[in-house]
Amino acid sequence: MAAPILALRGVNKSFGPIDVLHDITLEVRPGEVLCLLGDNGAGKSTLIKIMSGVHQPSSGKIELDGAEVSFPTPRAAQDAGISTVHQFGGTFPLMSIGRSFFVGVEPTKGWGPFKVYDRRTANAVAVKAVQEMGITRITDGDRLVGGLSGGERQSLAIARAVHFGARVLILDEPTAALGVKQATHVLRIVNEAKKRGLAVIFITHQVMHAMAVGDHFAVLIRGAVAADFKKGEKTREEITDLMAGGASMASLEAEIEGYMASHGGHPPPPAA
Amino acid sequence: MTMNAASPSISAKPVAASGLSLGSLLRRPEAGAFLGLMAVMIFFAVFGGITFLQPAGMSSWLNVAANLGIIAIPVGLLMIAGELDISVGAMVPFGAMTVAVISGHYGMSIWLGIAVTLAFGLIVGLINGYLVIKTAVPSLIVTLGTLFAVQGIVLGLTVLITKSTSVALTVEGPAKAIFGDFLFGGQLQVMVIWWLVLTAAYVFFVHLSPKGNWLFAMGGDKVSARNAGIPTDRVTILLFVLSSTSAAFVGMCQAILYNSAQVAGGQSFIFNSIISVVVGGVLLTGGFGSVIGIFFGTITFAIVNQGIYYTDFDRNWSSLIIGVLLLGAVLMNNTFRKMALSYSPKKGAK
After folding, report:
1. Contact B222, B232 (CB under 8 A)
2. Which domains does chain B have, with CATH numbers?
3. Hey, are the CB atoms on B12 and A117 less than 8 Å from each other?
4. Which regions in chain A score pLDDT beneath 50?
5. Predicted ipTM?
6. What is the domain class of A6-86+148-262 according to CATH?
7. For residue B219, which residues of chain A lie inside 8 Å, CB to CB?
């Protein structure tokens, strides 16, 4: 088995007095899909934010290719090859597919001060990248992103991350807002990314979607890894039961919500 | 349309190569502005006769369009990037007064006056941009503050220095010819040349150079744009500097042209520039628009503004026409934008 690309070792995260993540140890290997399952409030988003450089762990370490690293900014995580795709994130509804794909790294042609944006190349590369990921319906790079379906937009964002050299792909609830057919598209793309040797961390609370593509599963309850198992080791019912957790999860949620309600909607500040 | 087009062959060729069909033209951001321009041209040609399309009539609205257009384009670019600048209304008299006080009241070199005027434009732009990125206060509020602050400075300092609210300025030689003269001894201001050259430069930077993409990304989703590596703060500041310097430039040129500067005036540029930009197809919330659209929008506004003099209508009605035009243009632009969004090249392909 290949060595893990990204690993968390005993990561804790607390916001003030509230422990959100507790002793998380996870690893993800190239060509593997790690599904992070958990109900709302289980700490999934906090965990993603730690892996993508938005938050720093209170304690514990992050390892990249076996060496300890820290990601002070989202940019640092991105430069290390960790791409996070949020729902609709990274795409611009009123821009063309080609322009949206190349935001920040626009291809040019011409010379000197008269270098111009190379629309033809941008469109061709963007369309090719998306088609290679299996979305063959996108054929015209001049179409506006906002005209695509939710699944296509998600696929475009994933194709973009893959094209620009992501090694670890973090997908934050990519299928949550999609219909069955659209979700299938996205799952196919996840499979494609896996085939190309990317490590995929797939966050979801839909067990069906997780089981369709996952190799490795971690169930998060009340900020701790409640179960960590391989494909085929547990049935769908068992996973669903696990996710539902105990009643204490509800109290944690209430605790955080209570804090936010009494602090004008702000989450607890990170610990110093 | 054809089923074989649906075959999943992975082709690297974009389907519509140039796309000069009527449909693709209508989906462009400037489509509404162009149709609006045609409509007002026909309207005034019918009711005002052809005079306003003859040289004398044309120069009246071209002059208005040029002065407004030089400000409207950077204001429009800010809007595309998701910001707003209304302090341009104070920057016009500020620019006029700065050059008049330095080169008129104190009698110093006109070039010094020009340099200081543009430097003040730059400084106010830096302040606007810096406040917007540092405080995250909406730019409407920030520039509303600088609008009043700059108005106060202009009035206070002018009266303090010159004991008057109007300052005379006489400029001769190349500075007059370059910044504030009439072309060929006629009625067309040299500003029209500036406007056309600047418009061409903006078209290049926004639509042809690779950096133009950044504005649209910032207006679409600032966080994603920043994540994609765009220096959003620097671009925002640059745009505010462009708009306030452009406004100061217009004020300066007017002072040189008319040989005097007043502390008042200039507020009309606030709404007029926003109207031109919105009629030109820029989305108020950012992310969509074009320089050519703003160009058309400015001409449309200028024709309505001036065309009324060539008709039998009382000129008091011109605001009504502008109001109706604005609403009509916005509705039309919305329709075209929806068309652009829902456009998909091959219906029936699966």
Report:
1. yes
2. 29-336 (1.10.3470)
3. no
4. 247-248
5. 0.76
6. alpha beta
7. 94
